[in-house]
## 1
Amino acid sequence: MNRHGWSRKTAYAVGATVLLAAATGCAGGGDSGAASAALVAPSGTTAPAGTPAPQQGAGTQPSSAPPAPAAGDAAAWAKWNLTPLPPAPPAPADKPVKLQKSGPVPVFSEVRTSDKVVFVTIDDGAEKDPKFVEMLTDLKVPVSMFLTRDIVKDDYGYFKRLQALGNHVHNHTVDHAQLSKVAPEKQKSEVCDAQAALTQQYGTPPLLFRPPYGDGANTPALNSSVQQCGPRAIVLWRESMQIHDMQYQAADKKLKPGDIVLAHFRGPKDLKGETMTQMFGEMLARIQEQGFAVARLEDYIAAPAG
């Protein structure tokens, strides 16, 4: 698997919105490469001014927002041979990422915050291990799911169980195509057809989009497709979880407040015999060692109202 890393970009303020620029890489069946960004208007355009945090409406999911995630109790963590993470702080009233209803979508791989939190995102959906549902139920660690339609369509119900825990479903294309290598029409169908299927299955339209491998994230063609299909931001990552450790972009190989961490729904076939729960436990251990909590990404995002 190819591994690529980039240094952290300088963050730019654009109106009330903090925006980020991205680059990435990976190989094989998942996105093990990293991407860097600070919320910037794609294609060199100026992003519109930020909007206030919205009322519950289109683009927010689930319809009844869960309370701020707790760290779970010590016994639950001991069951999985883990040390509890610090509890996440309350969700900020002033969301640092403010999305717009129309126009170019921002690209970001971190959230500007002083909270000592990171955000866990999980891609694709090939592994559907019931023990992982049990693990998240016990530990109450929030995740954001970027699902690929053709990978999850044989068991949409598995991810509904994870959604019922308060975890959000987002768009990761129809069949994991490398988007920079396909025509604009194919790019659009990859985003729009997945958006339609995931909306039908999970009840609300995905708010966020992640291109496979992070590929094409900053191109005008993909940005236009995402705008037309419904997601309101392109989300990349700062670290990616391998089997036992993380791949970092930063030269110091340390987490930073607001970093987005990438993992995958994978099982023993792709994890050299380890299970999804073992890999996820290793990731939580790396986060705990550095003193971070895991917060819910969507709690730091103001979705467009209406």
## 2
Amino acid sequence: MALDELKAALPDYAKDLKLNLSAVIGNSELPAQQLWGTVLSCAMATRSPAVLRELEPVAKAELSPAAYNAAKGAAAVMGMNNVYYRTTHLLSDKEYSGMRAGLRMNIIGTPGVEKADFELWCFAVSAINGCGQCLDSHEGVLRKAGVDREVIQASVKIAAVLQAVAATLDSEAVLAAL
């Protein structure tokens, strides 16, 4: 199983990450589509070959083709949006925030899955990419759609754990090559 492989690959000093992988993915109460869409979009956002290699096949098996593509689309479009909107938010000149972005993001309007699921994946990716403006926007849409805070929190926990696992495994790979 993918989780077992990831946990086995983690060094002893990362025992907490092993436990958290089991908790946030292995024992998640999220419905399968929400869980594996979040896992896949976050795995892509980490940019970690080790994390993607283990989790993508499971996500692909657990998700419908439409959900699989939508989760990948969430990672792709948020990779762009998070950079753009984080920048407009951080710039001292607030004129940029009022300018039309002019970037294509059609998938947000028609993701091919339930809008709330797609928004959850966008929220989790935005957590990895550190865009406060996008986090606020997607959290607001989720709350208006009736998504409980516990579900939103579960997605950000998945994002946090996968980002930490990715950083640890990728760093260990570099250290092993020294």
## 3
Amino acid sequence: MMVSETEVEVRYAETDQMGVVYHANYLIWFEIGRTKFVEDLGLRYVDMEDEGYFCPVFDVHVTYRRPLKYGEKAFVKTRVIEYNGVKVVYGYEIIDADGTLCVEGTSSHVVVSKETFQPVAMRKALPNWHIAYERVVR
């Protein structure tokens, strides 16, 4: 199973009054990890959009285990945990520099037409993406 890893340094602007990362910022880090995962596959979201498609989030789950603080390093590990030709579910683990699990979650996506926002089968609309995702879920 392919896992992509991205380093994120906790910035002051990402923290709340308690000095820990504000909970919604982890979703941004999920997106950073997901984008890196796609790039590691040799693909780019901008190419998908140029071909007339988007891949919006329709569901997300997050479990917070340990807070991260300003100045710490975080590592976002991203993988595909489900792909059925239409829906993609990514899994995320955010760990600290010591390897402690801080946050974990999933996000579910479906490819849609830019014009209609109707779901499309990735195997027909984006065959190179389909082949890449089939390889990483085996």
## 4
Amino acid sequence: MMRRGDGSGEKRLHIRIAVPLDGDIIAARNGEMAFETEGHVLDSDTARKGAMSVLEDPAKGWYLVAEHEGAIIGQCMITLEWSDWRNGQIWWIQSVYIIPECRRKGVFSEMYAWIDAEARRQPDVVGLRLYVEHENLAARGAYRMLGMEEAPYVMYEALFPECRGGK
């Protein structure tokens, strides 16, 4: 298991907010995730522009990355939703991707702990949300283990074909 510097001598997992220099790897991993989870091939130029748009405009959100031995092994994006019911922000955890060889080793748990702690430090943040594919039982179990509860909502969408960013 990777640790965040517990003094055990194990290699440290470093969690940080992503910077524009991380854009290419984030975009590539977003492409891997889209294909793995939905069989969807992202247009690489659109994926790069999308990642860079977030990295360059904090109003759109931000990425968090986990590094091990200097390599990015995990990532997720945080976007913001204003809740008029709660008079505060809800942070949406999106685009979660951990490279296959590092899954089930606590990487996302560490990232989630970082997000949760940071959100609780912000006086206007009232909660965390994410969505997951119905069939992704491993991810659903991981989120439950972190203390998240399944919400009573069903998601609907209307995507515009000319703006899908993939094939």
